[in-house]
Design goal:
Blueprint (H helix, E strand, L loop, with lengths): L4 E9 L2 E6 L2 E7 L1 H11 L4 E5 L11 H8 L6 E4 L5 H10 L3 E4 L1 H5 L2 H10 L4 E9 L5 E5 L4 E6 H11 L3 E6 L11 H10 L4 E4 L5 H10 L3 E4 L1 H4 L5 H10 L7
Parallel strand pairs: 1-4, 1-12, 4-5, 5-6, 6-7, 7-10, 10-11, 11-12
Antiparallel strand pairs: 1-2, 2-3, 7-8, 8-9
Helix pairs in contact: 1-2, 8-10
Length: about 250
Amino acid sequence: MLTVRIIPCLDVRDGRVVKGVRFAGLRDAGCPVERAALYEKQGADELVMLDVSATPEGRATQVDTVRLVREQLSIPLSVGGGVRKVADAGALLDAGADKVGINTAAVREPQLIDELSRRFGCQCTVLALDAARTANGSWEVVVLSGRERTGRDAIAWAREAADRGAGEILLTSWDRDGTRAGYDDELIAAVSDAVTVPIIASGGAAGPEHLLSALKAGADAVLAASIFHDGELTVADVKGYLAQNGVNVRT
């Protein structure tokens, strides 16, 4: 049986970890290098680092931060934010990223997924899909760190991205992000039914029971930020809870 992955997330702005609610009201949450080292020591299976201001500010991800974090890690590192072209992804991989996440640029130019997959492999190409519920109960894609609703159906976009070569989907519920109300399990189940690539659930965790629920809904991995940044739980705490509830985790 495959083990599930527990993935702390570092949202980074100006070289500092930040956390907010629905991508707004960001507060300082520490040094990314120190956080990365701490979470690996706690047993994290992987780390995601997202430069949350790169796309809105029209710049590339801060490569120096990626390089410094990479120096502290032996676990996989996925990086996103501000990737607009193949060269941007190449710079992040050269700096030490193992995977590159794309969101806004992929929605604007879907062929970028094909290009990245051909150049670096599907295992390095992650679609970061931010989805918000609509009035009719479906989900639409949001971009620019949640600033723009696209009207594009999130489930159809997940399917298209996987067909184009995305090897993984980082699925974030915009409605739940930072709210501590739990993941949107209905969204997770809908995307899981639509694609065969692994899904990382993100947005809304307040305790290990939420991670367990997301895994039952169809996620292959679970990402969390606040519960780790605020010291409420360690990665080891979460893994212990999941193991006690029949989930196969890497110890």
